[in-house]
Amino acid sequence: MTTSFPHHVETAGQAAGRTAGSAAISCVDLHYAFGATKAVDGLDLRVEQGEVFGLLGPNGAGKTTTIRAITTLLPVPPGVVEVFGHDAARQKMAVRRLLGYVPQQLSADAGLTGRENVALFARVFDVPRRERAARVAQALDAVGLTDAAQRSAGTYSGGMVRRLELAQALVSAPRLLILDEPTIGMDPIARDSVWERISDIRAGTGMTVLVTTHSMEEADQRCDRLALMHRGRVRALGTPEELKAELIAHRRESGDADPRPPSLEDVFRHFAGSGLGDPGPDERRGEFSDVRRTRHTASRVG
Ligand SMILES: Nc1ncnc2c1ncn2[C@@H]1O[C@H](COP(=O)(O)OP(=O)(O)OP(=O)(O)O)[C@@H](O)[C@H]1O
């Protein structure tokens, strides 16, 4: 991959508000409830600059709610969530300018071409008009969609749709990329292709990545550190190897003589009381309509 992806350039105002050496993401005692449901219940989280950080947990653990708080889409009190030192309550626009977000819901429009979809995001994210065409072309190139850019997104395979959504998130050259289940509905080849694109871009820009996934293999292979969420809190935190070592130590202390080296699945079964596993029917390359079925559907996709 030869694409040189642009680095995020801070304005003077952004730089002034940023704490030197700040974490990419800091959440301190984050709470969020939907009525009586405590979706996030005292979450502490620190994601360092430049790492690929995996947020794992069973359905309903609070991962998406946490992401929505970080992306300023849910209201949080001042002083609780910071992104590169910017307060998500007081400096919403500064936070939004720093991040690219690929939500679970489809964000590509089937009726537009690939290029039009990315151009739309360039406008929404305020990429300067004179840079737009070049940045859209770079983003499409970075995800390997240049040749398909003139085709309608409705003709794309599931893997191509996800790469298109990645291009949409990348067109603003984010310092923090947030991916909510980026490879759901993809076969292993399409999955690897998405991660290779992300890895290429990170190598050029140092971009931080926060990802949620139900795939243990993805978490093990792609993430520098992981947090396991359960019932709105972080229950375990560390590199995949540290988490496995923690389970071995726990087995030793509790007299459990299981001689098998633990897998991440074992770690999560231990901390969350149940396994995570991949959602079943997604191990195939889907068409646009399949992706739509396997993910929550954005209302603007017909
Ligand atoms: N808009 C909402 N209204 C009411 N309850 C909600 C809403 N969004 C989330 N919840 C509830 O909050 C809790 C946490 O949900 P959340 O979507 O954050 O979990 P998650 O870990 O992302 O789950 P999944 O792996 O299924 O995506 C769940 O009990 C969920 O039902």
Automatic annotation (TrEMBL):
<dbReference type="InterPro" id="IPR003593">
    <property type="entry name" value="AAA+_ATPase"/>
</dbReference>
<dbReference type="Pfam" id="PF00005">
    <property type="entry name" value="ABC_tran"/>
</dbReference>
<keyword id="KW-0067">ATP-binding</keyword>
<feature type="compositionally biased region" description="Basic and acidic residues">
    <location>
        <begin position="281"/>
        <end position="292"/>
    </location>
</feature>
<protein>
    <submittedName>
        <fullName>ABC transporter ATP-binding protein</fullName>
    </submittedName>
</protein>
<feature type="compositionally biased region" description="Basic residues">
    <location>
        <begin position="293"/>
        <end position="302"/>
    </location>
</feature>
<dbReference type="GO" id="GO:0005524">
    <property type="term" value="F:ATP binding"/>
</dbReference>
<feature type="domain" description="ABC transporter">
    <location>
        <begin position="25"/>
        <end position="256"/>
    </location>
</feature>
<keyword id="KW-0547">Nucleotide-binding</keyword>
<dbReference type="InterPro" id="IPR027417">
    <property type="entry name" value="P-loop_NTPase"/>
</dbReference>
<feature type="region of interest" description="Disordered">
    <location>
        <begin position="252"/>
        <end position="302"/>
    </location>
</feature>
<dbReference type="InterPro" id="IPR003439">
    <property type="entry name" value="ABC_transporter-like_ATP-bd"/>
</dbReference>
